[in-house]
Amino acid sequence: MTVAPHDIRLMTTADGPRVREIYQAGLDGGLASFETIAPDWPAFDAGKLPEHRLVAEIDGVVAGWVAVSRVSARPVYAGVVEHSVYVDPAVQGRGVGRALLAALFASTEAAGIWTIQSGVFPVNTASLRLHERAGFRVVGVRERVGRHPLDGWRDVVMIERRSPTAGID
Fold it and tell me: Is the dihedral of CA 28, 32, 35, 39 positive or negative?
């Protein structure tokens, strides 16, 4: 079973515990972030743009989420966001990430956002494949940009997706 567009909806405060659970599962794997502890709801809520926080449901249970943060408060970067996408390990490979990204693109483009960017560890090949298939491109590698508590210095592959319509004058 794959996730259909009708299985994607805006994230609510009530989703907070499940979103955090999925987030923590991703962090526990050591491939998703330099962070090791998922933030509580107030911290998550403060850092993510509410109109671009989405969840995917399978059989009424949140199976994954996607959200964006501003990269800068400067007006020239108003159309640039950084995203995160996390899928419950129990349902990975069922189209949840792909569906969430497609819904995110529709949401951000409707709001005039022209660039979605992120950083992915080179060892996270599943995430890199997902993003490449969704239209992201590699724009560079930041070498030894941060220390991961599990194994020390890590590189980060910088990826971006430019909207084919938003921000085009």
Answer: negative
